[in-house]
Amino acid sequence: VPAAIPPLKAAPFPVGTAFKTDHIADPAWVALARTHISQLTPEWEMKMEYILADGLARPRFDGPDRLAAWAKAEGLPMHGHTLIWYAQGEEAFTGLDNAAFDRAFDGYIATVAGRYRGIARSWDVVNEPILDDGSGLRDCHWSRRYGQDGYILRAFEKAQAADPDAILFLNDYNLEGIPAKGTQYLKLVERLLKAGCPLQGLGTQSHLWIDMPDGVIAAFIRELAQFGLPIHVSELDVTLRTDNPLDLRSIAERMARQVDRVTELAEAFVALPAAQRFAFTVWGLRDTDSWYRQGEKDDGKDRPLPFDGAGNANPMAVVLSRAF
Ligand code: XIL
Hints:
glycosidase, 16% strand, GH10_dom, TIM Barrel, 9 strands, alpha/beta, Beta-xylanase, EC 3.2.1.8, GH10
């Protein structure tokens, strides 16, 4: 018997999920989303890797347009994800001279953010700029042209020009679990604000893991809140997997740890001043929708999301509904 839970979207802040065009064609997903969700983040099709798959000269908007049209038809705000990411666009930008690179960089942001004006209430303007060990910022094809803070500043300025009404976010992961990375993120935010960057919101992806020490999640959310900006828990999931091949804990034991992590995060988020609770977004609704359950990452067992493959509430959904 599925655990019946109240709609998550009854929360006093937007509750989001990642979504793809496959999902909106799946009636079971649509029913679940209509019950629980009040905001949408494109999981893949609004990324540069998709839009510039055929090169700079032939941008593809079929996928992202379908997602945007669906969000609009459902009356749900969309959180745009993502304009500039170290991991994407290198190929499309290779071989350009400086002037052509600048035109392409500025033009991409103007075109994409401009196209979804009025549908995207917000954007992840820059995704994942911090090095994994927290020792600094990533070196990438954007930073090699504009500098490590420079590409971020430029991207935010162009995004603001393209859609002056959108709330502009920085977004990164492992900020709670790797203290040096969290600290580096806070330092970057401070520098950007000092430099006059139109940074208006702080995204923490929250791809969590079960064995994070108690308290680190709540502590980071409190630090993040000190800037007074809106905060987005932007990509929550909690994998049950660990790196230890000798870890023999059962799924039930792992899910108990998972629930503790999610409770800590949800309670820390709910405790924020209302104006700072931008949205709380899960990186998919059903375990089977998770990026951990696709392709070579899939072990067929991971349960990282609030609902099971049949749409029944997992313990994670139950604790979210209680906390909200
Ligand atoms: C992932 C998606 O879930 C996958 O479907 C896609 O193939 C690759 O990207 N951080 C991010 C997200 O900001 O965009 C990533 O999403 C997960 C990690």
